[in-house]
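Quick illustration, no need to memorize.
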Amino acid sequence: MDFAEQVKSSVDIVKTIGEYVRLKKAGAGPRYTGLCPFHSEKTPSFSVHGGHQFYYCFGCNAKGDVFNFVMSIEGLEFFDALKLLAERNGIPLPPRGAPATRDSELRSALAEMHQAAAALYAENLRSPQGEEARRYLLGRGVSESEWDEFGLGLSEPGGQQLFRRLDRRGYPPEFLEQSGLLRRRAEGGFYDYFRGRLMFPIHSESGQVIGFGGRALRPDDQPKYLNSPETPIYRKSAVLYNLHRARNAIRKQDRAVLVEGYMDVIGVWAAGVHEVVASCGTALTSQQVRSLHRHSERIVVNFDPDTAGANAAERSLQLLLDEHMRVRVLSLEGGLDPDEYVRQSGSDAYRSRLDGAATYFHWLFDRARARFDMHSVEGRLEGWKFVLPVIQRIPDRIERIAVATDAADYLGVDRVYVLDQFRKSGSAAQAPARPAPASVPSLERLLLAALIASPEARAEGLPLLRQIPAVQSFTTRPVFEALFALAAQDGEFRFTALEARLDDAARALLAAVCLADEVSGGDAAYSQAMECIRKLEQTNSNMKLSALKNQIKEMTRNGDLDGALRITGELNRLQRTLGAPAAHEPDSSVVN
């Protein structure tokens, strides 16, 4: 067994995917379902089979084994995914054999550089040069334990400290330039990208440091926040700050709390609300929202209360609704940011405000009432037009009508007018239909599932099936042909080997069968397979009998009595084998 197979056989795909996707048990077998992490959906179409160690999405056709999943979700090449899974599961890596690809070497080097940078920044914060940064943090109510929890640090003002440390490790210049941690001078050489800033490490969902946010400590240092540029290991649009820490709490509390900045995250975390995340210095993206939706469909948005924060909330909320999140909005009084509110009012007050946060639509209705004159008919209609586009995008028709009538009452618009507008506009927004699994006849489905589940059924049943012509007309014929080919090799059966012989259409059929959960293993699978084969043989025999009888009739009608007698003998032999009554010899009197 090679190292990749060793890792794959040692790693539980359900546990691995379960760290990224909220999975629920489905049926009696080792099947789990959840919302697909690779496309937007409201109804789960993503399935994981623990027995066969594969996943399949009936919505977007994403599929594969544990390596495929980690490569897709983390944006890794195969060898990096293999290394990540081995390290995460405590499997020692073998001595380096064949050289890694240049891209794999680069990604590995960037990960090492970021880890080294995080360690250096943390050292600086604790050193004499970190006094100003420590004073700032303590003044913001961030304790030393939270420095360690979040890996906070300080970049040295001179601009050469990190470069010297990385240069001593012998990284190629092109790797240093692509790290996002350094900048190349026009006259040659490098300097540190972050200088004299309070540093916030940004992690991938698996916990690897992949970037940094740097806050200026002095008013004349601009911009106030400087974030890592995009690199081969860091894509801003795909990463949420603190998600690697928060995801377990998000599942436990069945909600996420979305704030704007790094300090807000730390302040809310200190209040005991650990399900908190922030976007990394960018507007919220659909990819980030899907990352949250994998863990819970509920979210409380608590952006800064100023105009910019309210506008950002408005833009973000539409994205959240498009991804089918259930959204509430928390607006804190006094113009306070979340971390400021926690320090002034305490943890209990903040948690109470979170629990009582308004639904998104009531927050939006309040925005409309504040923006337009509710004392005039024109103002109320403008308010209605302001909220209408959002209501029209609600996919569920009943919910859409309920919210529309609620908005009408809240804004003082006649309900009859509102409902009439909906009818005229034909605004019955439809959720995109999920492709249904391929239809496979029941007997065929049960037989294939049983053969895959039982080695004994394969050993005894496949030779019998080769003799049954009906298999050639099966919907799943390509899968059976692959099973025959694997059996002919006389090697150990592996689900991945079967899948590798199939095209995408046949893989979809195989997934539909295996994820139907209609058979267990062992004796039950063997019995089910043999019963299906018995029925196929019976059907095949009946078809032969019918064909012979038709042949006898045709020969008798044409006056070929010798041929009819010969076929009658063949028919009788088959009937004796099947235990059926013998046929009568053809009557010559019917012949002209």
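Residues 102-234 form a domain with the DNA primase DNAg catalytic core, N-terminal domain fold (CATH 3.90.980.10).
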